[in-house]
Amino acid sequence: MSATLIRIAKRFARRIIGRPILGRSILIYHRVAQADFDPWNIAVSPNEFERQLASLRSKVVLPLREFVTLHTRKRLPRNAVAITFDDGYACNALVAAPMLESFNYPATFFVVSDPIARGEEFWWDQLEFIFHAPDFNYERAVDLLNIYSTKVNQGIRPESTIPIVAFFSLWRLARCLSTEQRRRYLDELRQCMGLEKLTRPTHRPMTEAELRALAANPLFEIGGHTANHPSLPMLDPAEQEREIVSGSRFLETKVGKPIRSFSYPFGDWGQLTRDIVMAAGFECALTAAHRRVRSDDNPFELPRRQIVNRNAVTL
């Protein structure tokens, strides 16, 4: 086989099984679940998660804050890895945490506070449920979005008949709404379709009791991930500060511990957002840049490697 064909084959294989998990990496997970619809490829099956954890035995798995401390001191081992989860799905506490504990691996769970306080699904999961309802009408959903924010949706046409493309179009537009606009939009869309507002066991966030139990385990850290999971750079500075601070304060009152680590929702950040996070008293903040940590990375701009449902985890 020629060198060119080998390169093409390797690229194709990586798209299927994922890239190797290398040292000096912060890993990002979201769900440990068997998902029927997973457009972001963020759900890792329990069996695959266990396989990945077993493969990390060749690494030094560190608590996130120790990882960051060693990084800032230029003493981070070459094979160091930290494990993180974003959002606060119930499966983090019920499935992932016991498996992590069985390997004695520490992890940090970045939690969005408002869905826990309200006991409802994350907004993107609510949208997915509506999207897959039998009576869903894409054109009607877009027209309703235009009522809530004509500036955001100007020029948008419901043209795509490919389901995943249509869903991403709606998600992208709904993401640009304010929290209150988006809440009213989803409620009205459900109402006009005759749908109940459900919290599915497969998609729910963890409860306050589950959050406290997770935080009580010395292996685990709870981190801030805002109150409502907005794209922070889209908000004015005061709104950014409210989202960042109120989210962490809610968590602190529930777990009885200070919240010192932060994860930018969607991985979206800018210098202003970073400065607000620093001023709020956090010790580090994580992005979604898919690469290893470099020696000169700012502790408030640290990259993470997205872990998918199939990864080659050898060095």
Structure description:
It is a single chain. The protein is globular. Helix 2 (about 45-55) packs parallel to helix 4, helix 6 packs parallel to helix 10 and helix 7 runs parallel beside helix 9 (about 165-175). The strands form three sheets. Strands 1, 4, 5, 6, 7 and 10 form a six-stranded parallel beta sheet that branches. Helix 4 (about 90-105) links the parallel strand 5 and strand 6 (about 105-110). It is about 45% helix and about 10% strand. It is an alpha/beta fold and about 325 residues long. It is built from 13 helices and ten strands. The model is unreliable at about 1-20, about 150-155 and about 310-315 (pLDDT under 50). It folds into two domains: about 15-120 and about 205-305, Alpha-Beta Barrel (TIM Barrel); about 125-195.
